[in-house]
Amino acid sequence: MLIKAGFDIAFGTNARTPMSALLSVHPSRNRDLQTRQSLVISPNVPSYNYVDAFGNTATRFALPAGGGSLHSEFIIADSGLPDTRAPDVPVRDVHELPADVLPFLLASRYCETDQMMQTAWWLFGGLTGRTLIESIVDWVHNHITFGYQYARNTRTAAQGYQEGVGVCRDFAHLAVTMCRCMNIPARYCTGYLGDIGVPVCDAPMDFSAWFEVFVDGDWYTYDARHNMPRIGRIVMARGRDATDVAITTNFGNAWLTKFEVTTYEVVDEALRNAA
Q1: What order do you get walking across the sheet with 234-239 strand by strand?
Q2: Looking at residue 26, which CATH number applies to its domain?
Q3: Are residues 58 and 175 in the same domain?
Q4: 149 and 21 housed in the same domain
Q5: What's the CATH code of the domain at 212?
Q6: Are residues 115 and 213 in the same domain?
Q7: Is the bond preceding 43 in cis, omega lying within 30 degrees of 0?
Q8: What is the domain extent for residue 136?
Q9: Does the CA dihedral 79-81-86-87 come out positive or negative?
Q10: What is the pLDDT at residue 271?
Q11: Quick check: pTM over 0.90?
Q12: Using the 8-state DSSP alphabet, how is residue 274 labeled?
């Protein structure tokens, strides 16, 4: 299947403001791109890409006083298959894990394993394998009430647990934290997730957050907000939590004036041929 995705984002600024963005498709999906994907910045200012510490493609630039806009659109091929469940094997001993996954067992800015450890073991102690992972996902899904009115970019996993409300990032942070407490490496992901294979939501499209767990030598996708395997995820960035994968970071005063995201399956034959 083919998916068309993109965004139009604009900012206001009072002065020249350096920024960085994690808005490119993750390098692991580059081979699936059917059209060129690039970040178009208006006004046309110098920019360059680099690979960050987590393997994501980041872009650096500076918007002038008065602000500017960011735009991208592309077509990408997708298997059309839902997320693959992790294999049902016992949780691996931490001593046997590869060194490069150990950071995803540690506390991070939004994932306070030290505060949640006792709760996690009280809730999930005695479980292992796929049952443990999916019990965490089920519990987080039922514990947090979703609502855009609950969005707060400073909410941590522990606060999400206490407040019981949030948006997709809060579901992901709490699930990541619980997995880490139970010695399952977990990393936070952000990207596109359109209403493909599910009823169309009448809310404006947004980027989405989910998480991945490391099991038996590979990473597997889970989504505590939707709590079901989904079709057509397009990952942009992975990291320890939302700090590492912020779609934009401004080093100065900047504010959103426009934010539109689109993601949908291409069904028009002309578009398929153009791809």
Answers
A1: 218-222, 208-215, 186-192, 234-239
A2: 2.60.40.2250
A3: no
A4: no
A5: 3.10.620.30
A6: yes
A7: yes
A8: 94-231
A9: negative
A10: 53
A11: yes
A12: H
Return d(Cα 47, Cα 64) in angstroms, integer.
13
Of residues 19, 68, 13, the one with CA closest to residue 48: 19
Burial of 114 (0-12, 13-18, 19+ CB in 10 A): exposed
In a domain, 87, yes or no: no
Flag whether 85 is in a domain: no
List the one residue out of 132, 230, 125, 129 whose CA is nearest residue 175: 132
* Nearby residues of 46 by Cβ (< 8 Å), 6 or more positions away: 61, 62
Query: Cα dihedral angle (115, 125, 165, 112), rounded to 10 degrees?
Result: 20
Question: For the chain, what is the total number of helices (H) and then of strands (E)?
Answer: 5, 14
SS3 label, residue 159: helix
For 216-235, how does the pLDDT look when each residue is reduced to its tens digit (9 = 90+)?
A: 999 999 999 999 999 999 99
- Tally Cβ neighbours within 10 Å of residue 89: 12
Supply 266's token pair. 């291409």
In 3D space, the residue among 186, 203, 261, 193 whose CA is nearest the CA of residue 228 turns out to be 193
Helix (H, G, I), strand (E, B) or coil at 67: coil
In this prediction, what percent of the chain has a pLDDT beyond 70? 97
The span from the CA of 12 to the CA of 137, in Å, is 38
